[in-house]
């Protein structure tokens, strides 16, 4: 357990940033935590102070101030994104050796109203280290963990045809699609599904299963990123567990890990006060109006906010805990969520020798494990390696884990606020990774 005692921003301005010092019991290490304008540091994100108090002051990590400087830089226009800021706000949470070393928040969780129009200062909401983000495609990591838990239990065979479990998974060539292919994005399924206008949730779920393969695709032959594959994986989880995906997430991940601010449809479980102070906005130009606490992904929204490819909301600290659990071979805080063997397979490249098709990032490596991507310099920067794993989300979120450095980086931004097309977040992601790599052995 990491224990923290917050000190005010003003008292350490001379050091260039607000900080807290961590350490109690036998947790070891220390952390540097930037306070958001809302006055919330790591303690508000679920890190609790121990009764024994603080030991010796820990040294501020050398990458703390440079990391904050990079995050702050992208609150304005840059050479990478010269027309608009990359985001309105951001949070970075860094863990090394299973200890939080830095948590920093910059900018605003809410800056624009529908239109979009820039809100007056009094109506803006500052970003906090415990702000709750729409994690977008980071949801795919959670869905993959839930499915791999069923593999661990013998309820699912990775190399079995998907149709064995989901008879509605029909269409030309789809009999050859295996469960493993869903998680490695080699199924041949397209990026998105068409569910708009269908009369019921059941009809929409059936349409997802009936989605045809990309024309000419051969299952197992090519990496082609597919949200549909993880939507199907989620239905498989629901079939074998007999529960909805939201209940499966609680039982399989968030309850065992104590992640009280991670889940689908946050307007149902966040208090009114937390909705006002902690929810991070996304689009402000949508026909749905300002999106805050409502999933950004259109297909997820049409399906009630709960699908396998998008829809989970959470804090940076909670995302980092999931990364740490995988880094530790499936355990966290004395709880085992996955077997060490399945985690090793999850974090091993499944796509060796296969080409990748990605119009947005031509030339990207096809390297991918079971639900996590590997060796992607476009967002991992100098931290990219054959063993580095993680994922990104369309709203501006990402998780990066470097096993060799025992590093977990949860980097959450609201780059889709007020307009996702304003800026490309990848240069910022890579620069943050480069900054940490420069100072962390």
Short characterization:
With 441 residues, this protein is an alpha+beta fold. The chain has helices at 64-73, 139-152, 162-165, 179-184, 201-209, 227-241, 245-257, 272-278, 298-302, 316-327, 340-346, 377-380, 426-439; strands at residues 4-6, 20-22, 32-33, 89-96, 99-110, 112-113, 117-118, 125-126, 133-134, 223-224, 313-314, 331-332, 335-336, 356-357, 373-374, 389-393, 397-402, 407-413. Mean pLDDT is 89; it is low at 1-31 and 35-57.
Overview of this protein structure:
The protein has helices at 64-73, 139-152, 162-165, 179-184, 201-209, 227-241, 245-257, 272-278, 298-302, 316-327, 340-346, 377-380, 426-439, and strands spanning 4-6, 20-22, 32-33, 89-96, 99-110, 112-113, 117-118, 125-126, 133-134, 223-224, 313-314, 331-332, 335-336, 356-357, 373-374, 389-393, 397-402, 407-413. The longest helix has 15 residues, at 227-241. With 441 residues, it is of the alpha+beta class. The protein starts with a strand and ends with a helix. The strands form six sheets. Strands 3, 4, 5, 8, 15, 16, 17 and 18 form an eight-stranded mixed sheet that branches.
